[in-house]
Specification:
218 residues; DNA-binding; Tetracycline Repressor, domain 2; homotetramer; 9 helices; mainly alpha
Chain lengths: 218, 218, 218, 218
DNA sequence: AATGAATGAGCGTTCATTCAT
DNA sequence: TATGAATGAACGCTCATTCAT
């Protein structure tokens, strides 16, 4: 079973939306702002990502930051959208390869996800997102949009492996597998106690998931 | 297959440490403070749990709060210790029942954990902890202490089921199972999109976990 | 012996540093802040000079004060620098007059210093500085910088009067004279018991100092 | 001329007043409190001498401190009185020695005062007092009481040396000498830039003062 | 597009004080 | 005599926001 790591880690790119007034300078500044804000979020967490600190670490003046993002919420939403869109884009153009068996594709999908977890950005960003989603409906919905899109390939794979199961069961299998992988972030993500054991974790998890789909009896 | 919910959900109790000196009144006040602080943490998150808001929602004056907890860190540490101790206590006196087979005990253990996940406290508290642990070494260590203690019963069960496996493999099996269950918090916890499907999730997960332990080949 | 008071008392002016950027309005606000802070320091002492009180007595909002001086230390340092620079400036352009004998210049120098002591600002400001210098190394160094500059003219005068003495002795003569005058602040400064006797004090002190330099035998 | 240092430095003792309820324990506690408060005042200054810190550094509980000194002002006043009384006592029983000439007694008196200045307590305590006296009439009066008593021996000495001078002139001579010595605290006190030069300062100052008294012409 | 100035609110902390135990 | 509990106020600081330049 192929276990080589994915060629391009997802989520390393920020997809910054265009604006109506398409000045290049402003676009560059917004890029810088979002990149810097994400760095702070990753490094020191949500509450450290203040407007002042973002401006300061950008090397721009405070007034300029509020020109581009009038309120903190504006900044936060565009940041989360940009980060999430980055993850979504990677998923879209990596997973679909028709030359593999469903088992191989399941294996490959899980490799991709688990290989991404030890990255500092993923280990730091998603727990912030999970916590925020509990208190902010906008973030909650946006986050579950992302996960729904991320599970879509799994649905196809599981449907191919188990056409006998009802759709709800297949979806829930996908959910359990996805949740299981997310959960490893806490224990084997960047700088976590079991980071060094990620290889064994991957083997146990992936073989377990394949078995789980293959053998599940309703 | 036994799927009845556990009789007492863990984590609903705060274990507030005694003090060598002090009157009953002070003890009651400290209890109230911690209970209120936890409620705010659960409802509105970490940064909403300010000293002022805790005092205000306690119905006590700010000065009195700082009398009992001189600094926010004092409050936070005693709160986390009290919450975590509550979870640990439940684990300690529920899991050890010698009259069951290892498979039954694994099933029971997972039932216990998964039954707790939809509780509002657990769904809200642990993601906060995961996010905080990324930026606060004290919280990081305390959290992984808790999880290590929570995995201990799993180690016994898996050792009984698979004495042939080396300890590291058994530990990692336990870790994967534990992480998988934690991951469901995000998707099927309180008010989450798949909360209603927790029954099916439990069935898929638990039968999958039992299979995973039973059939794992190094 | 000439005893007419100096034409311009030193230390009545605040030398507020320019900033590279900024509007006139901001400069005026900073001037007002420092002037007000000094007034409070003089009137009610160091610990009364709180950020809140400065803002309030300025008629500006607290947030605006912290905009101009982010921390109290920023404010304090710029204030001390401005006050001290005011004293230094006066010393610089008053003392050097070549048309006088050394004795006349010594007399004139002491006149200048002693005439300044009964001013409320000097009587109040310097004892605060002396107390603070005991607990704050920055203030300690800045204060002794000021005094070193203030003694410089004395060194010249004494060198002219007593070229036979070694430099260390001349410096120490200057120090004793300077210290003696500073000490009168406590007893004959503004609103002090012997304020009314400053004329006699000046006569006794100055004739004594001139004699001391003229007649000192190592 | 005799220049050996005084046998017992003044101001090292706290004279704590008795109370009507003469329990020994309470007296001991008050001693400890005042001693500790003075240490804090000397070490970190006036504003650092808070009730809380005094209690904490005493090793007694906060409530107990407020039992002995109901308000901070109570503590401060008794502390200052005790310290000042300590200095006064030393002056009283050291200075009067009939077997010396007036010049010798003047020398001896100045030796005594100047020898005390480099002590940490004196260097730190008096500048605090000078600053406080500018803003607190009670302290102002008490301080000048102390200095008046301290100058009394000088008046006798100067009267013996210069019976020809009118009393006001003699008093002012005493004042100038006293003020001159106090002023050296700032420059040659404990940890001050010219502390190492105190020997030369003493010689210059004392010979100068003797000359000043001997030769002053109204 | 970018900066400077000003506001109002909230934060954690320290403090002096009063009162019950 | 000593401690615990509670209050109210002020502290320095950071923040998001608005508006003029």
């Amino acid at each position: 079973m192929p276990t080589e790591p994915a060629e391009t880690p997802p989520g390393t790119e920020l997809i910054v939306p265009e604006r109506t007034t398409g000045y290049v300078k402003g676009r560059e500044t917004r890029d810088l702002i979002l990149r810097t804000a994400l760095d702070i979020l990753i490094e020191d967490g949500w509450h450290a990502m203040s407007m002042r600190r973002v401006a300061s670490e950008c090397g721009i003046k405070f007034g300029n930051l509020t020109y581009h993002y009038r309120t903190r919420e504006d900044l936060v939403r565009e940041l989360l959208d940009a980060v999430i869109a980055g993850y979504e884009r990677e998923f879209d153009h990596i997973v679909y390869r028709a030359d593999l068996t469903p088992e191989q594709r399941l294996d490959r999908y899980c490799q991709l996800v688990l290989d991404d977890i030890p990255s500092k950005q993923t280990t730091r960003f998603f727990p912030e997102l999970w916590a925020l989603a509990n208190h902010d409906p906008f973030i909650h919905d946006r986050m579950h949009d992302l996960y729904a899109r991320a599970r879509a390939p799994l649905h196809d794979i599981i449907a191919a492996m188990r056409p006998d199961l009802p759709p709800e069961t297949r979806e829930t299998l996908a959910l359990v597998i996805s949740a299981a992988m997310e959960g490893t972030t806490i224990f084997a993500g960047h700088d976590k106690p079991f980071a060094a054991r990620m290889g064994l974790i991957k083997h146990i998890a992936i073989t377990g998931f394949v078995d789980m789909v293959r053998r599940y009896k309703p």
